[in-house]
């Protein structure tokens, strides 16, 4: 493979053992990423080197899908975070000044040929001469050089020593929740960084305040790699070999801090042409297939953090004066702002009153805290407000659906457990593109159209119950992300072309009742219409059974077509449909790729949610069982056979 450095023998072995690198597959893996990039209309300016791409592959253990996810996030952040990723000329006077201060210094030598790279981050009070984001910008510039040049960094990983000696209030005041979230999203979700450890040294009074903000945005895996020391001690030297540390840190390396500063200043300057060329390599959000990404959609509303930012200053000063322990509670109110047209629809159709949202969310939280069987449940504000909206702000109906949702997560493990997006079964279903919410709307307040291609199930070996698992995974993402889906509702298109006995025979009364209960009684889904396409004779039996299990309100929203789709176009315009359905907006393949990456990006969320469910042993009333909710399965056996 051209343009890729050869590895030393020990690093080559480590890459194969720890990162799943197969030398004979490197070329085809890189080509697969290039082919994928070419299909992304919003990434048409992106044409990275082979060395850059293999850095992402190694940082993601050669998972093509995770590599795509991080590449997509990296180039997206280059657009939505210009304060970090643009104007990166090394000879800019501000950047020159920051380089001369030596805030971020990767050390030159490693303990062994295949050891991780040690970096020293020196965030003393001189870091406040410039805005913290300018300092972070330079740190990221150096990281990108390492990604291009340093095989120890990309394969063995990075072990960072963060020195806070002399850091004070001026530094911590700048480290707001909004900035922390942006920086940590870049580190964890955009860069192919193999963080082996982050050791924070010589922490000053009040450090815990800023540290609690950092930890709130980290995954559990990253949290376990952070260590805090008040001073240099033997524990530090257990993590870092004295052989590689400079003498200023009690090490034996003859290279001084000043020599490291001079080295990295010259190195960054030598990359001037690369940084200038890279300035235009970023996502074009106007060409994205789905909704354009913005700083608000990725990081929430910065205004929701303002009170906490004031509190940080107040509590820090209070701490310095009184020397008592403080704890800061993160704000609970983290909800996306609505477009004006959606805000009006929410007011008219679902009784949303902006000044009631906070007390209504608080009321739901207080109710949850009083439910002993829901002690593991602590949903986000966005999740709660979606349930409120889906129930037109009826607190009682919202409580009922939340209780049912977390109960079904216990009683229906075949649907709600083992939801790892990278599980081979889930991957296979995602690649088929069976359930695809369309990414385009007719208007800003239109309903979200979802396409359920059950015909893709017939030709596969997947169980229908596993398909429903993936469908509900995508619906949960919509509940978290899509205000149009939650407020305006859903128009469901079900394609039954070619669906026969293999699929219909799996849609037993038991499965039908379970999925109907999830859709109608557990999730806050506002189904406005359902359009069944390409129906067959065999379909009628299954459809009549399903209608017995849904409410009259839902029955009225089902529309059946045989082959003539013109009537459907009166409800769902061609302009938003994919070409395969007579539409004018993209293809099924593009939608499949989009939703596969989207579901994979939620792997941490699904992992955390695995244990969030009801504990029926602690329910105050009688414990719920599948028999209570769905009847005795034996009573369905004759109908199953029929």
Please outline what is shown here:
The chain is 52% helix and 8% strand.
Structural account:
This protein is of the alpha/beta class and 642 residues long. It has a domain at 337-642: Phosphatidylinositol Transfer Protein Sec14p, CATH 3.40.525. It is built from 35 helices and 10 strands. A 5-stranded mixed β-sheet has the order 1-2-3-4-5. A 5-stranded mixed β-sheet has the order 6-7-8-9-10. The longest helix is centred in the first third of the chain and has 18 residues, at 132-149.
What is the secondary structure topology, with strand pairs?
Layout: H1 9-19, H2 26-38, H3 50-59, H4 64-80, H5 82-85, H6 93-101, E1 104-106, E2 117-122, H7 132-149, H8 151-156, E3 158-163, H9 169-174, H10 177-190, E4 195-201, H11 207-216, H12 220-223, E5 226-228, H13 234-239, H14 257-270, H15 272-278, H16 295-299, H17 306-322, H18 340-350, H19 354-369, H20 381-390, H21 395-411, H22 413-416, H23 424-432, E6 435-437, E7 448-453, H24 455-458, H25 464-481, H26 483-488, E8 490-495, H27 501-504, H28 509-522, E9 527-533, H29 539-548, H30 552-555, E10 558-560, H31 566-569, H32 588-601, H33 603-609, H34 626-630, H35 637-641
Parallel strand pairs: 2-3, 3-4, 4-5, 7-8, 8-9, 9-10
Antiparallel strand pairs: 1-2, 6-7
Helix pairs in contact: 2-3, 4-32, 6-14, 19-20, 23-32
